[in-house]
Design goal:
The protein is an alpha+beta fold. The chain has 7 helices and 9 strands; from the N terminus they run H-H-E-H-E-E-E-H-H-H-E-E-E-E-E-H. Strand 6 (160-161) and strand 7 (168-169) form a beta hairpin. The chain binds zinc ion (2 copies).
Length: 195
Amino acid sequence: MPLLSLPEYEVLAAEAHGHLCAGQILGLRLAMHGVQLLGIEDPKGADRKRLITYVEIDRCATDAIAVVTGCRLGKRALKFVDFGKVAATFCDLRTPRAVRVVALESARDRARQLYPEIAEKNHQQMRAYREMPDDELFSREWVRVEIPPQDLPGFKGARVVCEECGEAISFGREVVREGQTLCRACAGERYYRPL
Ligand SMILES: [Zn+2]
Ligand SMILES: [Zn+2]
């Protein structure tokens, strides 16, 4: 499926996300811009194995980025780095090139300037973000991303078992400490507290 038009993506994004909002439109535009800069024409079809996307926020825009790129967490093609920024880096594994696209803070002010008569901010931004040129919405930089082999889709590696909790660990996420193989939780990175 080659790239769709923005209105076509809006329908898919509303389905995937449960509603349509300014963040969705911004995310769609951001991802369309990213894949176009890379020259990837069919991210969900013929080019689906070329693209890895690092997304820097877990908000509305994130779901929209997945709609355009086809990159998903469960396919190991979507990587979440929790920087709290409306930004994403699109990596073309074939060329290999990568471009980081960032939503400009000034885009909100620009939306206000363009449509002062629309009082509701979400609607004001939705309208503006559909129409503003890429340069008013985003900055971009070409970057290099070193993607370790164990982070790539299709990586085959031995599963190991944590010597502390007995749970299985894939993709080389174990920690070896003083000769002991541990999962990251047992190694001290546990984000939950057993009751
Ligand atoms: Zn939303
Ligand atoms: Zn463990």
